[in-house]
Amino acid sequence: MSVDALPPRPARAASPGLVLGAALSAVFVVMALVGLVWTPHDAAVLDVSQRLQGPSGAHPFGTDHLGRDVLSLIVAGAWNSLAVSLVAVGIGIAAGVPLGLWAAAQGGWADEVLGRVNDIVFAFPAILLAVMITAAAGPGALNAIVAIGIFNIPVFARVARGSALPLWRREFVLAARVAGKGRLRISAEHILPNISSQLIVQGTIQFALGILAEAGLSYVGLGAQPPAASWGRMLNEAQTFYAAAPWLVIAPGLAIVLAVLGLSLLGDAARDLLDPRLRRR
Amino acid sequence: MVARTLIAALLLLLAPQAMAQAAGPSVVIGMPLEPPNLDPTAGAAAATDEVVYANVFEGLTRIRRDGTVGPALATDWAVSADGLSWTFTLRPGVRFHDGTPFDADIVKFSLDRALAPDSANAARAQIAAISGVEVLDPLAVRIALSRPMADLPLLLGWGDLVMVAPGTAATNATNPVGTGPFRFAEWRKGDSVRLVRNPDYWGRPARVGQVVFRLVADAAAANAALLAGDVQAFPNFPAPETLPAIERDARFKVVVGSTEGETILAINNGKPPFDDVRVRRALAHAIDRRALIDGAMSGYGTPIGSHFPPHHPAYLDLTGRYPHDPAEARRLLAEAGYPDGFATTLKLPPVGYARRGGEVVAAQLAAVGIRAEIRNIEWAQWLDQVYKNRDYDLTIVSHTEPLDYDIYARPGYYFAYESQDFRDLIERLSRTPEEPGRTALLHDIQRTIAEDAVNVFLFQLPKLGVWDARVGGLWPDAPIQAVDVTELTFDGGAAAAERAGGGAGAFLLAPLVLLAGLAAWALRRHVSPVYLAGRLGSLALTLILATLVVFLLVEVLPGDPAAVMMGLNASPEALAALRAEFGLDGPIWQRYLAWIAGLVQGDLGVSYTYRVPVADLVAERLWVSLPLALYALVLTVLIALPVGILAAVQRERPTGAVLMGLTQVGLAVPNFWLGLLLVLVFAVGLGWVTAGGFPGWESGIGPALAALTLPALALALPQASILARVLRSALIDTLAEDYIRTARAKGLTWGQTLRRHALGNALIPVLTILGLQFSFLIAGGIIIETVFSLPGLGRLVFQAVSQRDLIVVKGVVVLLVFAVVLVTTIVDLLYTIADPRLRGTGGLGRAAA
Known about the structure:
The complex is a heterodimer of chains A (281) and B (849). Helices cover 69% and strands 0% of the residues of chain A. Chain A has 281 residues and is mainly α. Chain B has 849 residues and is α+β, with helices and mostly antiparallel strands. Chain B is built from 27 helices and 19 strands. In chain B, β4 and β5 (85-90) form a beta hairpin. Residues 1-22, 493-509 and 840-849 of chain B have low confidence and may be disordered. The chains are: A mainly alpha (281), B alpha+beta (849). Chains A and B meet through α3, α4, α5, α7 and α9 of A and α5, α8, α10, β15 and α15 of B.
């Protein structure tokens, strides 16, 4: 596709996707932060006499089987989703980006080894590795972070390598090499700043995927443990109450969908902004 | 040639399996736990007794539904004046299911076997006083004792001491042969055990033709299966919260009875600060039993104040000893030196009463300043950490053996309650088999445990029986661990026809061979030998590295599989013998090499828990997981193709925007939540399909596909969203190419251009994603299989992890990894065929990155 074939694009207002994505993401992040210090009701307080109350003014999303306010649990659970997923992305970037940069700079055997190791990690069914890690180290938010983080590493390694490779043929890199800079220094000073937009986009997408993965792990009981609130675990606990209390199934699921939707919309919009070539899609 | 081999393999895969028919009504009974094996004399697993006790195996005596002892294979018995010699008269004309006659030699064999030093029998300690078994004549035996045992007839009615024949004793674990009114027919691992009526039974024949014990572990799945009519009876229903709704439903009966399960908050008495009785009493005052029973059991359960069942005549109500009184609890804590409370841990096994009760207990403890951190653990970890190594502070568990107060006298028991006074009481009780005096001693026992606040006594576990209103004859109470179906009736005519059929055999590797064959066929014509060799070399390297990773990861799992298998009361010698049997005692590199050697020959080893080859287990499960993945893949393509094309063609119009919005939402939906919603709408609400379970391929393609439809849809929708988006991008790119303009210019219509020129090229990236998605669908079904109670690979590996069945875990994971790597390689090669420009490079993986 040649660039001159594109019709000139008029300057556009922010796309609906960007607005919606940013709004949902902001709600999610604010909710997670606020939930650390304040929730409508105390999410940890059990009041068994108030169990399974339907939605009402006092409890907009009703109460659960132990009499806790569902809205408060969702607000409190946002932090768990945010923290686990964000740290897992951090692990992926911290370990994956240097590996990818190194493979791109080194080429040859290093590239081949990284590719092979990446293949193995990709070949591992993610949930099985998570089950194995949590079975070995016990369930908990920390192990969920590790399990999800490991799968982020090859993702970022690939993105970093793929984005860095063409840069090595560019003139400014050539100039730096002529100036006598080593491969490491070039990777850090010239390559990394130029691939940061791709990394941010991928980071947003992995952030969204991490929330999904965390919900899945918590749903099968391998994520955050009580009394910490968790959306996935709320769904697990709600399953048998669906006839008596459908709001218990619907509310946490919607929370997950909206948070993931917001972040992935934001990621797509960010990619469109940062990579104009893709705007037509 | 290759093609012919492939067709043969395909036929093998699709070969129908035999179906055995049984006369008379068939009843499906739901069970929360799967038996580890079917030999009740080989361990303490309650799930084994629940299936085979009285149904398949019988003892000299039997426990009846009211808990009393009655005759079974012995018609009557007498004890000598000194209490040291018992004579049992045997029932004539009894035969085992394989025709072996039952006589006094069988009795001697069975009891000697249970008493043998290497026996894994859980009741061995209780019958240690038996000093000899003597055959008097073919229908009479004498049992000699070293001390009087008033409860010998009761003990002989336990599942541990049923009669087994010498010829079949060794294989009872997988093919139980007893004398009971039902014969063992089939065990589908991870799914069900099927029993059929024994037409030659010595007593009153069973009134139903067939009973299927179906594993339904999950509370939600149990509820769904009941409502959907997949299961006719749950002797122990795992979802008490749904009982009010079920009670109102005329189709079902709810029968709440008692069990022998004292549910306790167990305390490590040996570990500070719990070695201080004031702290333990503070715990007791901190707990509000009523709120706990309401929160954890939806109100079902009787509060207890000591370790003794309320329905026993000698029960003493001590629930008032430590009333719920947070102020008093705080005062006691301050007195013990903890005015601000302390931090501790609460380990919870994976049963509803513990997990849910734990949250309530932690909240109630927090109210008096004790900060208990909850740790959810699997049964294997519970047995290993809590029960065996006493590595715990607090835990919640139900002790379901009848009248097991003697555990408080056992040295080294996990409560770490070492009281000589209490041991003296138990000693005096054993010398007081009759009144007067026995009831008073039982009262003292209850009082002593309560006074010392050894544990916090929570509630007697109820037996929540739920069954179809047409089902009759099940026990309301559970005086022992048994689901006696000998008097079961069902007047609903032919119930849901249960499937039968043998194991799928050793076709385990057929699909993989099929894939490899496909690859070879594809390669022959299109790819140079050098490229092929390189690709296969790196494939082999990947596989070797993968086996190493899997092996090392699995090896670090905690928990002793032998201990899990043999149950709570196994002796160290028996455990060592078992470890040797499974090769668990060699050095690590030796075990790895042995495993790899087997792997190469298609031998994945023998399952610890099921005692059958892992290859057979996997083959059975593959029949569910593979079709499910294929079905989901077909749905994915069927949904993604029109959506992707439409979204590309209409990209500037509202239709395109709406479709993209929908796929964006589809990406964000967790597939298990989608599964839950689909069940809510289509199974519970509309009743169009069953809510879970799998009827088997023998029941016909239609019912089997129907059972897979919702799970496949739940798996497919998020994947279809991804694929549709990829297809749309690829099409838009292609449509912008010059040759498309040329095609339009030469007069082709839009549709013709799309079909002849655009679609083919746009499918290249789609194919890539599709290959990756198939791998995901095969492996990623684990959660969906749990939601829908499907007996697939995902559920197999999940169960295997919790049962510490390392061989199965290794086998399944390695197989899945192999499958994913193979599929990726094949896609790589197909990609090379589709796009010859890539042949010189490393293929897709490199090029697409």
